[in-house]
Amino acid sequence: MPELTATYVDSLAPNAAAIKNGQGLVRKKSFTQLHQSENGDLLFGTCAGSGKTPYECSVDFIVPDSPVFRCSCPSRQFPCKHTLGLLYAYTDGLTFTSAPVPEDIAGKREKAEKREENKAKQAAEGAAPKPKKVNKSALKKKINAQLEGLDLLEKLVLSFVRSGLSTIDKAAVKTIQGHVKQLGNYYLSGAQIELRRFANLMSGGKDMEQNYTYAMEQLTRLHAFIKKGRAYLQARSEDPELALDHESTIDEWLGHAWQLSELKEYGLVKEGAELLQLSFYSYDDPARQEFVDLGYWLDLTADGGQIHRTFNYRPYKAAKLMREEDSFFEIAVVPQLYTYPGGMNARIRYEAMTSRAVQGADLMRAASMAHRSYAEVVKKVKNQIKNPLSDKQPVMLLHAASLGMTENGQYVMTDSEGTRLLLEDLPSMPQGSTSLLPLLPEEAREDCTVLVMFEHDLDQGRLRVQPLTVLKDEELIRLLY
To answer: What's the pTM value of the predicted model, to 2 decimals?
Structure first.
């Protein structure tokens, strides 16, 4: 069983409400029985509910990295508040009496063990997993439909370029929204999102002149996607193997949802990684019609040093029933780390992990991985932003000789060569962080490490930089989480 801490239990909860409700069950002393198996890999008990019969709940750690939650309650949340409460009772130090494993759980364990034995037997015998069968005929039909959809999207984009953005009124916005829905019929979910983003910009706002600037950038992105997407789809349709592009994000733009088996097939998996979360925040994305939980993680392993992203998407209609991610303050020890195709801050995913406390050596190692030349950093960021289909808000870890203010009252960070970066809040971020810099201890503003986010200000034609986190010696100070 992994080391159970409140932070680890928080990471298992589907949302903040489930955490509050689980902890509330412990405070109200709702658990009538608390037991654990003799070897401690199973926690189980009973919890008073709204009816006469208490709920039977358990958390099984027979596979330490993948706990199994079971509860007799009717809740559609997973894990439910009762199983979370069981874990919080354990982390709070409540007494769990030793008891034999219940028969129903023992039976389920036996079936699971047989499945694992069969898998191990097949692996020992050298039986290769059956390759995934691809219906090439159906896939080619899908590609043809996507190409047709790209033709329609191109006509729409070019019509806006020819007529000008100022001619787009409410009726035109409704037409765009109709095309957004239509793109779903052509399997172009990525283009749907970006076209909806354009429609939202043209729907009005306080500063339409600024909206026009970013709407033109959005049209540029759509045009680049159409051009690259068409060339890619045409080449893929002529490829008898119909291979995916595992080096760029074009398949994701075309709506492909990468499976872990596919990432593994293309070698995008790393055995053994230790991840430190440097920053986390959630935001509402109207273009995706989803709430997004975004975490930035630093790979601390010997061949690491990269800053990756984790995404958790919660569609509006199902948000209440889905797990909501939260800040994670420990080290995530990941047996297998999957990396999605992409450039800087590539998306990562993992199926299982254990946690351990952050040690001073971890933060010192993180600081040693920071970039020290701002000139080289800016060059890398500009190369990233030049690609129309790339992420427009790259994040990097930088060493700062000092954090201070100019005579004009502007916040700046300076590298060891004297090069300065102006710090300010990004308009696209859910909240600011720059104003918190004066609250840092004075010693934390000298010879420190700063996680920053870049963004291209199209109106002023310059890079904006917002600080997210400051590392100093053995302390990690989050300005945004």
So the answer is: 0.79
